[in-house]
Write a structure and sequence with these properties.
Blueprint lengths: L10 H5 L1 H11 L4 H5 L5 E4 L14 E16 L9 E9 L4 E7 L4 H6 L5 E11 L2 E5 L2 E4 L11 H6 L1 E4 L8 H11 L12 H6 L5 H9 L4 H32 L12 H7 L7 H14 L6 E6 L5 H14 L3 E5 L3 H15 L33 E5 L5 H13 L2 E6 L13 E7 L6 H8 L7 E6 L5 H7 L4 E5 L9 E7 L4 H16 L3 E5 L6 H14 L9 H10 L7 E4 L5 H12 L5 E4 L12 E6 L7 H8 L9 E7 L6 H11 L3 H11 L8 H4 L14 H17 L7 H13 L9
Parallel strand pairs: 4-6, 9-14, 9-15, 10-12, 10-13, 11-12, 13-14, 16-21, 17-19, 17-20, 18-19, 20-21
Antiparallel strand pairs: 1-8, 2-3, 2-5, 3-4, 5-6, 5-7
Helix pairs in contact: 8-9, 9-25, 9-26, 10-12, 11-12, 16-25
């Protein structure tokens, strides 16, 4: 039988089943290799005290500190009615702050003997607040002794040594992880190096086994730096090679060049536009038309601020393809958004969208969607159809027929477009709106509908810093729209501290009434729906979080309170994701038509909903939303000529990180600046959307915002390596690392859903 390679050895064989079980369940570590790549989060110097002043609430922390005093109290309780209950309170200090430790009952004996004033130790536990003071209840601790008998270290080396602090859990403290790593560290010698020797030597980096030894057992801070640089390069380079290979494979595919007819549909559309395109829209359109004219599929990411006119750019690209005899499909993440796009596209196109009836019999089939002879139509008109999962059977049959015959030049739909039954006459362009909601597999399924691979344009209104674009969307060329079209109004944003200043919230509802009295409309956004299904989840989350944490505010409850209270007499309606599609559409139509004054909704309105008359938005429990999401939501107001107002309501205290996030959103309208702030505040693992799935990220060392330079350089090196050796035949170590990434992390990286 073959020997299992050292790094693939299961941890239960090396560390025993109990420890291995905790590592697998709580940290996702299964093999020796996994544990070697579980790097220390930071290092403590034994001679230096940690900062207790800025400990995060509700997080599991490890601190190095000294005992200032320890007091044993007795008290009466239900379990110990005669005053025999015992509580040990220990105060520890690091010079910058103090922290209280508390132990109860039988658990007081050992720490009472060991935690004497002057003792230094590592303490680990969850930070909570009691009597307005930070405390750790029943923390685990490990004493730091200067002399340990026969194996006494000299005081100097003891004080100077770097103690690795690992990302730990309540079930497995950092020092236990350190001991486990010590056991498996010799296996680091077996690590296969993914970097080509020329690249490693050229950049003066240490070999991988040495980097692993230095990250876990550094002697100096320089060791840590050497190791970090090397391990960051591994992550950046292997990922960029995966993306470079995808770009290389895509570039080998054939595509039909689509050049618009000189006096066709696009010219007719441009001639009837009531405004001038911005310089940014013109520049990006030229890049897109250039790509469409080549015989390889376009793969372009179109980033644009909320309201920068991306839909107009995408529509012009779609019309160019229809002009060239092909069909174009726009894939939207939700039915509300697909219907919205369908409405706005048909409105923008007017008679070019093939309204009206055929004069006599329908014309001959085929011919790429261009039609003539419609009542009230135009000689260049093409049919624009909508295809969603909830359409009636007859409407769906007609839409499918229009697609397969080429009758419809433009189709707009949800992932219903990807189904097997959907066939196109000649699909030339796929536009994907809000890329972060779709995975690569879904994109590929739609692209597979073309006789040859169609061109691909991906749009996102969530501004992505350049480094993230290179890391997450590295298989796409990027265009950025950063100008707002003329006529867009500024949006004023303010934080409303509802707990500290309740009269501010009362004033917010007065502002909503004033907007309505001035002929405008408003949105109120809540994090939760508040129906029965939702209530089940609420109960569970309260049990998980502890009953003292208020559940997030709900649409149905808030709408009811507003209609009976501060907004009495106004027409208030609700909108959320679990409503029937027809009901959702009817609510949106009434709101768009101005029949509803206030729409109380969940984030279903986050993307693409366009009601220029809506000028105010109140976001309840704004701290429950991410920075990018708040920016997206805010973009729903100020879309007409009247100024927009966005009020961020929160009960979080002024000093909290959540409030700082909200202050950042209120202080700038620059989405790119906000996306940087967002990433700096979140752990790097969340960059790729891992917060939702709870999965461990592959970025264990690379911090996407900080390591911009490494990512850019790794991208260049990867492109050169793949161009010279697309199959990586001369680089077996790199192939192994790539197989591991694509196997274990495929969902996380290349399926960016």
């Amino acid at each position: 039988m073959d020997l299992v390679p050292a790094l693939e050895e299961p941890l239960k064989k090396v560390l025993g089943p109990a420890t291995a079980k905790v590592m697998a369940e709580h940290l996702g570590l299964h093999t020796v290799g996994d544990l070697l790549h579980h790097y220390p989060r930071r290092y403590e110097e034994r001679g230096r005290l940690t900062h207790l002043a800025d400990l995060p609430m509700d997080e599991h922390v490890t601190v190095v500190a000294q005992v200032a005093d320890a007091r044993l109290h007795t008290f009466a309780s239900a379990k110990a009615p005669r005053g025999k209950g015992q509580r040990l309170e220990v105060t520890i200090t690091d010079g910058s702050g103090r922290l209280q430790l508390v132990f109860f009952g039988a658990g007081v004996h050992k720490p009472h003997k060991e935690l004497l004033p002057g003792t230094r130790a590592l303490f680990a536990g969850k930070v909570s607040v009691f009597n307005r003071r930070l405390q750790l209840a029943h923390p685990a601790y490990e004493l730091l002794r200067g002399d340990t008998g026969e194996a006494a270290e000299t005081v100097d080396s003891w004080a100077g040594a770097l103690i690795p602090i690992y990302p730990a859990t309540a079930k497995l403290e950092s020092w236990k992880l350190a001991k486990a790593v010590q056991t498996i560290l010799p296996s680091a010698q077996e690590a296969v190096d993914p970097l080509p020797e020329s690249l490693r030597a050229g950049r003066g980096m240490v070999a991988l086994p040495e980097a692993l030894l230095k990250i876990h057992r550094p002697h100096t801070k320089a060791d840590v730096e050497d190791a970090r640089t090397r391990l960051k390069w591994d992550e950046a380079f292997v990922l960029q090679v995966a993306l470079a290979r995808r770009r290389h494979a895509d570039a080998q595919l054939p595509a039909v060049a689509r050049r618009p007819a000189p006096d066709g549909l696009l010219t007719a559309f441009d001639a009837k536009l009531p405004f001038t395109l911005t310089d940014g829209q013109r520049k990006v359109s030229e890049e897109i038309f250039g790509d469409l004219a080549t015989e390889h599929p376009m793969h372009r990411l179109l980033q644009g601020e909320v309201g920068s006119g991306k839909t107009m750019v995408a529509l012009r690209a779609m019309l160019a393809v229809v002009d060239a005899g092909g069909q174009a499909a726009l894939l939207a993440p939700t039915e509300v958004l697909a219907q919205q796009h369908h409405r706005s596209v048909t409105e923008m196109m007017g008679e070019l969208a093939g309204w009206g009836l055929w004069r006599e019999a329908p014309p001959q089939k085929g011919g790429g969607g261009r039609r003539e002879g419609m009542l009230g139509g135009s000689e260049h008109a093409t049919k624009v159809v909508l295809l969603t999962g909830s359409m009636g059977a007859a409407a769906r049959r007609q839409a499918l027929l229009d697609l397969v015959t080429g009758e419809a030049g433009v189709v707009i739909g949800t992932h219903a477009l990807i189904e097997d039954k959907v066939q196109f006459h000649d699909l030339g362009l796929v536009v994907v709106d809000e890329q972060h909601r779709f995975g690569v597999e879904q994109r590929d399924a739609l692209r597979g509908k073309g006789k040859q691979p169609p061109h691909l344009l991906v749009m996102t209104a969530t501004p992505i810093p350049r480094t993230v674009a290179m890391t997450v969307f590295g298989d796409l060329e990027t265009s950025v729209l950063d100008q707002l079209p003329a006529g867009r109004s500024p949006i004023a944003s303010h934080v409303v501290p509802a707990a500290e200043k309740p009269h501010f919230l009362a004033r917010a509802w007065e502002r909503v009434r004033e907007e309505v009295e001035n002929g405008h409309q408003a949105y109120v956004v809540c994090p939760r729906i508040g129906d029965e299904e939702d209530d089940g989840r609420k109960k569970k989350s309260q049990e998980d979080e502890g009953a003292d944490k208020r559940p997030p505010l709900a649409v149905l409850e808030v709408a009811d309170q507003l209609a009976k209270g501060p907004l009495q007499g106004l027409k208030v309606e609700v909108l959320h994701g679990r409503m029937q599609p027809d009901d959702k559409d009817a609510v949106m139509r009434r709101f768009a038509a101005g029949e509803t004054d206030v729409l109380v909704a969940t984030t279903v309105i986050e993307v693409g909903v366009n009601v220029p008359n809506a000028t105010a938005m109140v976001i309840m429990d704004a701290d429950r939303f991410g920075v990018s999401q708040l920016h997206q939501l805010r973009g729903r107001v100020g879309r007409g000529s009247a100024a927009g107002l966005c009020l961020l309501v929160t009960e979080m205290p002024e000093a909290s990180a959540a409030r700082q996030r909200l202050n950042a959103v209120a202080s700038t309208l620059d989405g790119f600046e906000l996306s940087r702030i967002d990433l700096e505040q979140r752990r790097e693992g969340d960059v790729l959307g891992q917060a939702q799935s709870g999965a461990r990220t592959s970025l264990r060392m690379l911090a996407v915002i900080e390591d911009e330079e490494i990512i850019a350089e790794a991208r260049e090196e990867a492109a050169a390596v793949v161009a010279a050796d697309p199959e990586l035949e001369r680089l077996p170590g790199l192939r192994t690392a790539l197989d591991a990434l694509l196997d274990a992390e495929r969902e996380q990286y290349l399926d960016k859903g």
